[in-house]
Amino acid sequence: MTITHIRPHLAAAIGCTPLIKLRRASELTGCEILAKCEFANPGGSIKDRTALGLLLDAEKSGALQPGALIVEGTAGNTGIGLALLGASRGYRSVIYMPDTQSKEKIDALRITGAEVRLVPAVPYANPNHYAHQARRFVEEANAAEPGSAWFANQFDNTANRDFHAATTGVEIWEQTDGQVAGFVCATGTGGTLAGVGLALKARNAQVRIALADPAGSALAHYVNTGELKAEGNSISEGIGSSRVTANFADAPIDLAWNIPDVESVPWVHALMHAEGLNVGGSSGVNVAGAVRLARALGPGHVIVTLLADAGTRYQAKLFNPAFLRGKDIPVPAWLDTAFSAQ
Length: 342
Hints:
Layout: E1 19-21, H1 23-29, E2 32-37, H2 47-61, E3 69-73, H3 77-89, E4 92-98, H4 103-111, E5 115-119, H5 130-144, E6 149-151, H6 159-166, H7 168-175, E7 180-185, H8 191-203, E8 208-214, H9 219-225, E9 255-259, H10 261-275, H11 281-297, E10 302-307, H12 315-318, H13 321-326, H14 333-340
Parallel strand pairs: 2-10, 3-4, 3-6, 4-5, 7-8, 7-10, 8-9
Antiparallel strand pairs: 1-2
């Protein structure tokens, strides 16, 4: 018996996410602002795509051997995607992760069965940065037993960018019937922004590609001036960078802005309260960037961004009035009321 409409395994459920109109942002700008609902991926974030692209490339090249250990340094979501895919394909996972990340993400990783190694958050130049520790672990494991471990290397493995070009970018083009005039998102590894940008530019060179960068990241300043310089800080997790990764290097970026938390976090709250979309901090940065891009292009354009993951992974920060006030971030009245009633 053949049953149609069945996905044969977890990997087949990744991608083809819906594109939804953001009503408030669209009304505010006179543009059609659309968002890819990447939280609909089985692991709950856009990083499922990154994980799958890295895994497929490694399996094809032979870099990842059957039964080998998957190892990655990650702020959380890529690790979750790798661990879930690994479990479905017979791999174990070891994840190095900064100890500053949300408890919700740390717990989500542990639930997958991954071995989570929390390390202090230090700059990339420090040899104890989580990515360097993950790489050293793999080098030592393979020195003792060749082929026993694989370092996913999401920041500088361009299979990340290439997979987004082949999937995310193509989906956006097809879902908008080629009418997309601009795409904007934040970036950490650079894979999504570069991949989508390259895919859309290949189909229409006039599509504007923009970077929405959180405070504390050096990338917007780099795009605008050629200098890596960071100012301020942000409560956003998993986005921003102090360096140009291999994935980011070829990103065809036309515009770039630094987005402060006082601009991005209110969008997280507005999406939840007015549109029923429960999203994380990077999605707030993305929507704020989409509004800026819409204003730069003018009314009547189709702008696409990403809702990268769910707000439940950051609940103790994004929806915690005391925490927000401690960071001088506005607290909406409905959120105050919700917590005062407890």
